[in-house]
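Chapter summary example: a protein plus nicotinamide-adenine-dinucleotide.
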Amino acid sequence: MSVFEYAPAPESRSIVDIASSYGLFIDGDFVDGTSGTSFKTINPATEEVLSEVSEADAADVDRAVAAARRAHDKVWSTMAGAERAKYLFRIARIIAERAREFAVLESLDNGKPIRESRDVDVPLVAQWFFYYAGWADKLDHVGLGARPRPLGVAGQVIPWNFPLMMLAWKVAPALAAGNTVVLKPAETTPLTALLFAEVCQQADLPAGVVNIVTGAGATGQALVEHPGIDKVAFTGSTAVGKAIARSVAGTNKQVTLELGGKAANIVFDDAPIDQAVEGIVNGIFFNQGHVCCAGSRLLVQENVAEELLVRLKARMSTLRVGDPLDKNTDVGAINSREQLNRITDLTAAGDAEGAERWSPECVLPDNGFWFKPTIFTGVTQAHRIAREEIFGPVLSVLTFRTPDEAVAKANNTPYGLSAGVWTEKGSRILAIAGQLRAGVVWANTFNKFDPASPFGGYKESGHGREGGKQGLAAYLQAQEGDR
Ligand code: NAD
C-alpha cells in the first residue's frame, strides 16, 4: 500500500434518467419493434441490468431505410448546406450542454472510467459535430467537383468500445454531406445512441434524417445487406468486416471499413524514458485496451529494455483499477463477459507458448468483468499474443537492435492501423514513420484524435478514412463530368 490512498470520489449517476425499456428510433419517433423481442443491456462493472432494448428485425430495418430514403429525397439532400450546418451546430451544442449526462451514461453502459468518457469521448463527440457542421456549406470547394452530391442513405454499424464517439465519426460527416443514416449501435452499448436520438428530437432534426435500430449481428447484417442503402460504413472486427465486404461485392454500395489493429509502439534508446512510459501506458491501458489503434506491441531497443521495464512496472503499480464512476479510476471494467473470456483465452495462450506474464498487485471487485493490467515479456513474433488482437489491457513486449529490425517487426502483422515512435531525433521520426505500413503514426505521443485528422487503416485494418476532408469525401460523389 502507498503512503497516501485516494478516498473514493464517485461521480453521481443521478444526472442520467435511464428508462426501463427503449424502442427503435425510426422516422423521428421511438417505436416498438415488429417482432416484440428485446435484449438487456447491463453495467459491466456490476452486472446490474440497466434497461431492455428492442431488437430490430429485417422488417424494422426496412422501415428505417424507407424513412431515411424519404428524408433524403424530400428534405435533407435538397436543403442548402448552410441550413444543414445549423442543425449540426445545434446538435454539437446540445451534446456539449448535456456532456455530463452523456459521460455518466457511457461509463455505466460501457465500463470505461468517467475520467475518459468525461475528458476524451464526449468532448471529441461535440468537436466532431462542430467540425463537420463547418464543412456543410463548403462542399463545392473541397476539391471534389463543382457540386458534389450525397451518396444517399448510409447504413452504419458501430462497435462497443467508443459507442458515442463511433456514432459521431459516422453520423456527422454523413449528415454534413447531405446523406441520411440508419445506424446500428453495438448490442452491449446501445444507451448513448438512444440518448443521441433524443438530442436529434431536441434539435428539431427533420424526421428520418437519423434512424437508430438496436440489435445484434443479425440486425447489422439486415442493414448492410438491405438493397435500399447506398453506402455501408462499418467499424468492428476484421472477421465481420470481411463478411460485409463479401456481401456488398457486386452491388453499387460504397464501403468504408474500419477494422482491427495490432499496433507497434517503438521506443528507441534516445527517447525520454519517463515520457515514453507514459505513452506506453496511455497506448495500451487507455479504455482497458479496448482500442483498435492500441499500442499493443511494445518494441523497445534492447540496450534500454531492462531500465524501461523497471520504470513501466513501477508506473503500472500506480494504476487504479475499479469503479468506472470513480473520478480517480484509471482502468475500468471489461465491456462484457464474452470479451473477458477472449482476453483470458489469449493470455492463457501467451503462458502456454512460454512468454512471461506480469501484473501489478490490485484488488478487483467481486462482481462485474475485470482484468488486471498485464504485460508479457519474452514474446516472439510467432506468439499468438504478438499477432492477434487481444483488445484488452495486455501489452506484448519485444525488443530490437537496429532501426531496420524495428521497422521489419512493426510491419510484420496482417494489420496496419496505427503505430508510435519514441525518439529525440526528428530525422529518425520522419525516416521510420515513412517506412511503417500504418494509417496513423504518432511521434512521442499516442492515441491522439482530432476531427481534422483522417484516421483509417491498411491491409486487414480496413480501407477508407474517417475524419478530415477525406472523411467527408467518403460520403460524396462527384457529378458526371466534374472529375
Ligand atoms: P464486431 O465486429 O463483433 O461487432 C461490431 C458491430 O458489428 C456490432 O454492432 C455488431 O452487432 C455488428 N455485427 C456483428 N456481426 C455482423 C454482421 N454479420 N453483419 C453486420 N454487422 C454485424 O466487433 P466488436 O467486438 O464489437 O468491436 C471490436 C472490434 O472493432 C475490434 O476488432 C476493434 O479493433 C474494432 N474497431 C476498429 C476501429 C477502427 O476505427 N478501425 C474502431 C473501434 C473498434
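Key point: The chain has a mean pLDDT of 97.
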